[in-house]
Design a protein that fits this description.
The complex is a heterodimer of chains A (about 300) and B (about 425). With about 300 residues, chain A is mainly α. Chain A has 13 helices and no strands. Chain A starts with 19 loop residues before the first helix and ends in a 14-residue tail after the last helix. Classes of the chains: A mainly alpha (about 300), B alpha/beta (about 425).
């Protein structure tokens, strides 16, 4: 009757349909609105930089895994995500070779130096971005206005009151490629949330704490939420699974910590934008947050015969 | 209607549509029945018969020995052909009484009671013990023992009708077709354990079961539960319905609660009212690998193959034959194993369904932690187990794992989390001995 032996394996015998690869490509799809918006505002520069950074990320992953004699996992989609996020966080006028270098550093130093996907403590795209910011301070902070590519200042540099909220929301301001349009970013974020990939707790902690600190310090919270890299980071960077805490409370605290550091950098720091370093700093705190926020286990600390 | 639930859990594809609406069918008894002496948690029963003995249906053929054990009764009349090890759902051959059916269906005399609820707690427990009833949701803990916890005040009896495992519908059909027995059994169990507050909990994906129970409830509290796996886990039922938690390393009675399955309640009613021992049970045969999924009233001891044949036999490329549901059930090596008291279902999956992608690296998405109904961090315990760090696994709460399988189910990297947690539990338990 039976042609082949029955399969024996431990329970459970059914699995959820989602996979790590699907998660990665869902993020890629969620990044498309921001990319399309960046092409609309900044033209071919947006195509050029994102393609170069993504291609460089893929090639770096392949080459490094060849050198390390590890199985090739380019198809898991994680390198595409890193490359796209890095590309979208660059200023429009940046030379292509810098984008390529940023991707090589992101994948090499940010990811494979620690063992590859799943082992990196820091967000790889942000490692690449931090490297570029430190190495090429001038080109990394040269911004242009949308449509005409005339050099201009970002809303954060200008300060509140000089830019319309609607321009901030739709993205018609100077800034990094994919980070100007709050609308496009939120579309991607809502898609991620709907597909169960985005954990709302990190963005919630991040956005809420930033708004709270800004209000307490007498700043305009809406201006701060809508400008700079904040919304892009809230949807695509603080939600990075690998580099954030695994505990429910820890995830909120992580977001809140990013908001705190960001507030400090924006109001008192010398950097124009603090998201990169706020997240990298909090990435370093993840093991500690995990340890501090371990959930109480069911039934522990419960009295008998309650 | 207000629904109650617990934190964590997952939503597998329930696949209840195969059998949920199918009335329980009577199965043609097999010519040979295999009755393991171990069909329950605790010590195996001791065989009272030997090769060549003639037995009647309903006759006790093996007796409980030790404090935690249960009697075994013959489901059909016939001749004992052997007392020998036979394949068992546990995976290891178990000493079993092999019975040749004479198809005469001669039953022993059964003593009926006209007003069972008037019996004393002790009498009810005695009837349940004599009938060899064990937990019929799968765990198989002897019911009479569970009803007499050592020096504990029981104020809650929860009767578990959530049946959260995919495919299974035996409890569902029990509630629909034997609602009266479930309600009577619930009252008897409550009286036996002295519980003042009684709740029957049913998931909201079984509206007809809820309706049937409410019609017969006679004042009992029937509560709607959120459809979510593992709602029917004992600890999750208690949390959902009372807000209490079973102490770590403890048992439900330590928080004043006893949980019984609806099938157990129905069996208790039949045992006390009709004097009927536990010889038959409702079994769901389902899955993409069987021709005509159905619910059957099956004599205990019937080989799986016989039940599968009653459902039209296997179709397609058979991958797994599972004793129980696909989340917690055990894959079987052969269909020769018999239905025992705790077999709520036989699920047959195709080969395609049984093969999973190779595990890849953990991306720390924390879905396992978010779905763990005991609030563990499964990825951390798994990692500790992979590295043989048993102290760390223990410190992370490995022993509190209920083995529901949510972590492995939900893992997008397809890692065998529960498998490693079980390994850690075994190692920790071995070290404690």
């Amino acid at each position: 009757m039976e042609h082949k032996p029955l399969i024996l394996s431990p329970s459970p015998h059914v699995r959820d349909g989602d996979s790590t690869q699907k998660i990665m490509f869902t993020v890629v799809v969620a990044l498309l609105p921001a990319w399309i918006a960046s092409i609309y505002f900044f033209g071919l520069d947006a195509v050029r930089l994102v393609l170069w950074s993504t291609a460089a990320a893929l090639v770096s992953e392949y080459v490094i895994q060849s050198i390390r004699r590890r199985p090739h996992t380019v198809s898991d989609g994680s390198a595409v995500v890193t490359g796209m996020i890095l590309g979208l966080s660059l200023p429009p006028g940046l030379p292509s070779w810098m984008a390529v270098l940023g991707s090589v550093v992101a994948i090499g130093l940010g990811k494979h130096a620690f063992g590859g996907l799943g082992y990196n403590p820091f967000n790889p795209a942000l490692v690449g971005r931090a490297f570029l910011t430190a190495s090429f301070a001038i080109p990394m902070t040269e911004w242009v206005r949308p449509f005409d590519a005339v050099s201009g200042s970002t809303p954060l540099a200008l300060g509140p009151g000089l830019v319309e909220y609607s321009d901030l929301f739709f993205g018609s301001v100077a800034g990094s490629l994919g980070e100007t349009s709050v609308l496009a970013i939120l579309l991607g974020g809502i898609f991620l949330f709907y597909r169960g990939v985005l954990d709302y707790r990190m963005p919630l902690g991040f956005v809420a704490s930033t708004a709270l600190f800004m209000i307490l310090l007498g700043e305009d919270p809406l201006f701060h939420l809508f400008s700079g890299s904040l919304m892009f980071a809230a949807m695509f960077m603080v939600t990075c699974m690998v580099t954030t805490p695994v505990t429910p409370v820890g995830r909120v605290l992580f977001g809140a910590g990013v908001g705190l550091v960001l507030t400090v950098v924006r109001l008192w720091g010398n950097l124009p934008e603090g998201v990169t370093f706020a997240i990298l700093l909090m990435n370093a705190a993840v093991p500690m947050i995990n340890r501090w926020t371990r959930p109480r286990i069911y039934g522990q600390g419960v009295k008998q015969n309650a | 209607m207000q629904k109650t639930s617990f934190w964590g859990g997952v939503h597998p594809v329930y696949n209840k549509h195969f059998t949920a609406a199918k009335a329980v069918a009577i199965i043609e008894p097999p010519s040979e029945l295999i009755l393991p002496l171990q069909q329950h948690t605790g010590e195996p029963a001791r065989a009272d018969v030997k090769k060549g003995d003639e037995v009647l249906a309903g006759q006790r053929i093996a007796s409980a020995q030790g404090t935690v054990s249960a009697h075994v009764h013959a489901p059909v009349s016939g001749t004992v052909t052997a007392v020998e090890p036979r394949p068992h759902t546990s995976g290891e051959p178990g000493m079993s009484i092999v019975l040749e059916n004479d198809f005469k269906d001669d039953w022993v005399e059964m003593t009926k009671v006209s007003d069972p609820v008037q019996l004393s707690a002790e009498d009810i427990k005695e009837c349940i013990e004599n009938a060899g009833i064990v937990g019929m949701g799968g765990a198989g803990f002897p019911t009479s023992v569970k009803l007499s916890p050592p020096e504990a005040d029981i104020d809650y009896l929860i009767v578990n009708g959530s049946e959260c495992e995919p495919y299974l519908s035996s409890d569902h059909r029990t509630m629909v077709e034997y609602a009266e027995d479930v309600v009577l059994g619930t009252k008897l169990l409550a009286k036996a354990c002295g519980a003042q507050r009684i709740i029957i909990g049913v998931e909201d994906n079984k509206p007809d079961a809820l309706q049937a129970l409410q019609e017969h409830s006679g004042g009992l509290d029937v509560v709607v539960l959120d459809t979510k796996y593992p709602q029917g886990g004992e600890k999750q039922m208690i949390k959902s319905l009372t807000g209490r938690e079973v102490p770590s390393n403890g048992l439900p009675h330590q928080c004043g609660v006893i949980v019984q399955n609806v099938g157990t309640a129905a069996a208790a009613a039949q045992a006390v009212r009709d004097g009927r021992p536990l010889t038959h049970r409702i079994v769901t045969v389902s899955g993409e690998g069987v021709q005509s999924p159905n619910n059957f009233l099956v004599p205990i001891g019937t080989p799986f193959q016989h039940v599968i044949d009653a459902a039209g036999g296997l179709i397609g490329d058979t991958g797994k034959i599972i004793d129980g549901g696909p989340m917690t059930g055990a894959a079987q090596i052969t269909a020769e194993v018999p239905v025992i008291k705790g077999t709520c279902g036989i699920v047959v999956l195709t080969r395609e369904q049984s093969l999973f992608a190779e595990p890849i690296v953990c991306i720390k998405c924390a879905r396992c932690a978010d779905s763990c109904p005991t609030y563990l961090l499964p990825m951390r315990i798994e990692r500790a187990a992979i590295h043989g760090m048993w102290d760390e696994a223990s410190e992370l709460g490995a022993m509190d794992c209920i083995e529901c399988g949510c972590c492995t189910f939900i893992c997008p990297s397809k890692r065998y989390l529960l498998h490693y947690i079980r390994l850690a539990k075994n190692q920790i338990a071995a070290a404690r001995r």
